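Researcher: Re-running this chain for the archive, since the previous output was lost when a drive failed. Same request as before.
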Amino acid sequence: MTTEAVAAPKPPSDLSLALVLLKARTFIALIAVVVFFSLAAPNFLSTANLVIMSEHVALNAFLAIGMTFVIVTGGIDLSVGSIVGLCGMVAGYLVLNGVTLEFTGYTVFFNTGEIVGITLLVGVAVGVVNGLLITRLSVAPFIATLGTLYVARGMALLSSNGATFPNLSGSDEWGTRSFPWIGAGSIGGVPISILALVVVGLGAAYLAARTPLGRQIYAVGGNERAAALSGIKVGRVKMFVYMFSGFCAAIVGIIIASQLVASHPATGETFELNAIAAAVLGGTSMSGGRGKIGGTIVGAFVIGILSDGLVMMGVSSFWQTVIKGLVIIAAVVVDQFQQRLQQKLALQRQAALGR
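Model: Regenerated structure tokens:
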């Protein structure tokens, strides 16, 4: 008796090539925008401009990383822009005014490290509210985070009656002189915001790919009911992703207040759109269960370079908004096309195996 090795059926080469190109779409888009703006905008690739763009990209990338985890679970977080504004105001208030204890009349001032810690806790607290609304009260993520968007923005406005907290240069007496360094300082020539992004990005990528919690996040997004039946605490997983999203938004609020040496309650408006665009462009599926931190960061670079490049070309801010909206739509359409193509290839493989 002779045996013959049976080779696994191969899908059509044209479909396989199309799928490879779709999966690499974010890198292709990044190369395309870099080439276009390097030719269309003078000094686009200058060292100074690249550093400035990287700092802008970092702000969006922080939000997009948190948004990626939320979207992977099948949710959405519309409140991140308002959390940025609220946390910036919290940091500014603490730098300028400290906290007055009503019953004693004393005012407590905090140093820079303590202010950063308190502000991060405020961002996480808003994430907890989002998580509780979604997991305990069964409010749809869109509605829950839309509500906290308005609440957080309103609290930011109330903190100063709509005014700006200016001159956040700090005080030597209270240990806040280093506050502006967070946004303007550098280590080894690398801006602090970039270094912070590297730390958060690597930590998020490790969590997503190498930890049980990361696997649970993807399982919840892939099939929430199956995840619950397998013993995963779905509510806790969702709480975590919204808390982490709030944490990332708080980082952005601190950095912006530090860079401007001032905080304004309108800071962060529409930031959620850029974060969603970067995550989706980076391959995160709006239906949940799929997305990578590396792809999201590349997507943030595409959105950031697109925004700064359009500014350098003198394109109206109104048209910039239109273009970003079109990018989000195009990214979702391409993602849906990729899913249909993957399903088609899977069916063809099954049909070939059944012959």
